[in-house]
Amino acid sequence: MSGQSLLLIDDDATLLELLASHLRTAGFQVRTAPDGPAGLKLAAEALPRLVVLDVMMPGMDGWQVCERLRALGPVPIILLTAKSEEVDKLRGFRLGVDDYVSKPFSFAELTARVGAVLARAASGAPAAQRLTSGELSIDFESRHVTVAGQPADLTPTEYRLLEVLARHAHRTLPVETLLEAVWGPAYAGEAEHVKHFIWTLRQKIEVDPGNPQHVLTERGFGYRFE
Fold first, then answer.
1. Residuewise pLDDT in 10s, the chain (226 residues)
2. Which of 60, 30, 63 is nearest to 48 (CA)?
3. Whose CA is closest to 42, among 78, 4, 7?
4. Would you tell me how many other CB atoms lie within 10 Å of the CB of residue 180?
5. For domain 130-225, which CATH number applies: 1.20.1630.10, 1.10.10.10, 2.40.10.240, 1.10.1790.10?
């Protein structure tokens, strides 16, 4: 499980630093955020494999952050809390939390929980090999795309862009995230690349490219597949 990306969200700066250091020593790639809004921004940009989230934070608490994270996608979440009442655990699980660790805890315990949650996520249902939305159909295994039963002649870059968006359906992906995933780190800051290929992709997969139904723009933020 080492090498996978984690996001830690906690307003306790000392705990955040120590826990991040311990998890990095265990081989994980770790990003940290001191509050809910910063954590949500990082989650959208970095697409972590797992989020460790403190419940008791000022302003936007962990419950609110958890709800927003669930709206972004199915990322596994471990909640940290000083409380251990059963009602809080039930609330967390209803929100789709994968595990619940009460403070105080040992770093070794939390690291083990992180590994266990990642293992469960990896052993879950395999990623869908086909996606159909209206007249658009994507076969991820054969990399074949059709519109109303007719092949869409996509370039490799157009296909990769569509695949990344479709694999994160209903989740707005920032332009920089798309650049990293489709073109690589050498293209950081080249937002026009994304804008151009979004335009050409829409010409090939949308019934009305001027009124897209699949690849939508979130102005000032990025793009979303519906």
1. 557 899 999 999 999 999 999 999 999 999 999 999 999 999 988 889 999 999 889 888 888 898 888 777 778 888 888 766 656 666 766 676 777 888 888 898 899 889 888 877 665 545 568 888 889 999 988 889 999 999 998 888 888 899 989 988 888 888 988 888 888 776 778 888 889 899 999 999 999 999 999 999 988 889 999 8
2. 30
3. 7
4. 18
5. 1.10.10.10
Question: Which pair of structure tokens corresponds to residue 146?
Answer: 């059709």
Q: d(Cα 183, Cα 156) in Å, to the nearest integer?
A: 11
Mutual angle of helices 156-167 and 191-205, in 10-degree steps: 90
From the candidate CATH numbers 3.50.50.60, 3.40.50.2300, 3.40.630.10, 3.40.50.80, the one assigned to the domain spanning 5-122: 3.40.50.2300
Token duo for residue 198: 């979004």
HEC states along 150-202? EECCCCHHHHHHHHHHHHCCCCCEEHHHHHHHHHCHHHCCCHHHHHHHHHHHH
> From CA 159, how far away is CA 213, in angstroms rounded?
17
